[in-house]
Amino acid sequence: MLLNMNNISEALKVLYLPRLRYQFNDQASALLAQIEKNSDSVVGSEIRMALRYGRVGGIGNRDDDGTLPTPRARQTKQAVWKTKNIFARFQLTDKTIAASKTSVGAFANMLEQEITDCETDGKLDLSRQVLGDGIGTLATLTAAAATNQAVVAVDTTMYLAEGMLVDFLVPATGLPTDAAHLGLEILSVDSPTQITLKENITEANIADENIVVIAGNLDAAALAAGGRELTGLAKVVSKDNTLYGINRGTAGNKWLNANVVAVNGQISENKIQQAIDAVETKSGSETNFLFCSKGVQRAYANLQTAMKQHVNTLELEGGWTGLSYAGGNKPIAIVGDKYVPGGYMYGLDLSDWTMHQMEDWGWLDKDGAMLSRVANKAAWEATLVKYCDLGCQRPRGQFVLTGITEM
Q1: pLDDT top residue among 115 and 310
Q2: Tens of pLDDT along 257-289?
Q3: Residue 214 belongs to domain with CATH number
Q4: 8 A C-beta contact, residue 215 and residue 167
Q5: Would the CA dihedral through 31, 35, 38, 43 be positive or negative?
Q6: How many domains would you assign to the chain?
Q7: Could you tell me if 373 and 383 are in contact, meaning their C-beta atoms sit under 8 angstroms apart?
Q8: Beta bridge mates, 348
Q9: Strand (E) positions, 222-361?
Q10: Which of 58, 115, 135, 155 has its CA 20 to 30 A from that of 144?
Q11: Whole-number Å distance between alpha carbons of 264 and 333
Q12: Which domain holds residue 198?
């Protein structure tokens, strides 16, 4: 079989697109795999979600001849916000394609490697975004980075890796202190709190407390709009800020705040159950998914062992498994994730969550070509895209426990 662009496009569409959809939707995050995905609430490029709150009127006790209770529907507030744009892009040089034209197998191996790398890194980034606040902070500087130095001290390197291009921005403005602080490449991740850049910082010092973000993901306009990344758990469970275009810091919108409980100590079934009972009382929610850091998951398993109880597991969508917590109408899965902040456990009612999407992942091929020429380069590129965002209809039905002692 001769190798040509039609063959390559057919392979991307028939062989690789279903695989990438499965990996990004079901394998990026245990939480994302459990969440319903649909386009019912997407109008144009906007998500429109009706938020119901309060209690139904018309319920009450009266005398035999008393006036019946006044009927009153629950309150509704319309949430309207823009879908986020997620891209996954890779390139092949024309020379590499030309060198493989006589061997379809050789080209297939090369394409497979590019797809696998894109798949792996895309899953890691989606897993991070699901837990984020939309802004996309990867790390925060803990000390000023000196001119003519490449070493930078940060609070964490959890989300950083060699070869990443990053921007150093002022968190209050979404702007750099100097244009030279944009698009810097990480040469090495030296420790949990230190990175080395490929080139020395040659302009003004990068000031203390600047944030590190993926290059191009944030600027002043994006910061004002709440960020370009997914509206993840950190945003939903934060309090008294703007969510889905609604200011929940005002008295009339407090119902949109989630429940935050500081444990500041050892995890226990009693503390988990108190949080579950509290959100059920407030909102009528049914907690059916517990999402925590790996250290918290280990602490819970150790608690069960210390109590001489058998640690059961549950099978979940996407092939994921979790520890079993028996505290509701049926067992609840406790799933540990590498990107959940240390000491955190989220309690979620999955029926309140939706991935609102214009459509599923697809190739950027409106011009009919899945592989497109890279401007001014002897190279070809393919781009996978999804326009979507996470939405939670009832933040009050969710909780987060913080300060849990890890193991």
Answers
A1: 115
A2: 999 999 999 999 999 999 999 999 988 889 999
A3: 2.40.30
A4: yes
A5: negative
A6: 3
A7: no
A8: 289
A9: 242-243, 246-247, 259-265, 289-293, 313-315, 321-325, 332-337, 345-348, 353-357
A10: 135
A11: 23
A12: 139-224
